[in-house]
Design a protein that fits this description.
Tetracycline Repressor, domain 2, mainly alpha, 239 residues, 9 helices, elongated
Length: 239
């Protein structure tokens, strides 16, 4: 039996996702089986499980694929170096939502299922998180180097927080019935403006420095020498 190349595997993976979304939209999630999806794609009943272990994984695979496509489109945008940090994040959000637009009804239904799932905060959302967090981290780092925003020791956390912001925007967007999603556009613009201004002030790092100074310079003084002696004594007994 001929070995399937990585390129062919990727082609099949994408075909499975697209086919599943079409069938979920037409027949409903519960009424569609993995076997039906496999046969529609033209692969063996068991082969589909080499790509996705369940229908739930297929849904998360869809969002991961759309995230991959959004990142690819973003990186191919011309003159990105001329964009401000806010414009870059805005562009990424616009591309992502545009990619999801043809499947908006499916997106709304699947998001409702995802938010009811106990795994929503764990490994199942990793494909989306990995795709966006890395790119956002690069944006923040470049903005720090150029002096657009203050340098911070919390850049990695800010990238994850920004990714969560994008997911929150997605949840708002699927419910937005305003003309051409103008409410979503306004919400993104105002939220990003506020967020960028906070990053420019470096207030997060300054607050952290203040807390660190307070702990190092005053905490033990407030606790007193008796507390330190008790800690030392307790440690000696624990050995």
């Amino acid at each position: 039996m001929a070995r399937v190349s990585k390129e062919k595997q990727e082609e099949i993976r994408r075909l499975i996702i697209h086919t599943a979304v079409e069938m979920f939209s037409e027949k409903g999630f519960d009424s569609t089986t993995m076997k039906q999806i496999a046969r529609e794609v033209g692969i063996g009943d068991a082969t589909i499980y080499k790509y996705f272990s369940s229908k739930d994984k297929l849904i998360f695979g869809y969002y991961g694929l759309r995230a991959e496509e959004a990142v690819e489109s973003f990186t191919q945008e011309s003159d990105l170096e001329r964009y401000s940090l806010q414009e870059k994040i805005q562009l990424l959000i616009d591309i992502y939502l545009e990619n999801l637009l043809p499947d908006r009804e499916f997106v709304a239904d699947s998001l409702q299922m995802i938010m009811q799932s106990p795994s929503v905060l764990f490994e199942d959302v990793t494909p989306v998180r990995k795709e966006f967090v890395g790119l956002i981290h690069d944006m923040l780092t470049e903005a720090e180097k150029s002096g657009e925003i203050e340098k911070s020791s919390f850049t990695a956390y800010t990238a994850k927080l920004t990714n969560d912001f994008i997911l929150a925007i997605l949840l708002y967007w699927v419910k937005d019935d305003s003309d051409e999603f103008s409410n979503t556009t306004q919400l993104v613009d105002m939220s990003l403006s506020l967020g960028i201004e906070i990053l420019k002030t470096g207030i997060v790092s300054k607050m952290t420095d203040l807390v660190g100074f307070f702990v190092k310079a005053h905490l033990f003084k407030f606790m007193g020498s008796d507390f330190l002696n008790k800690m030392i004594l307790a440690k000696s007994f624990s050995r």
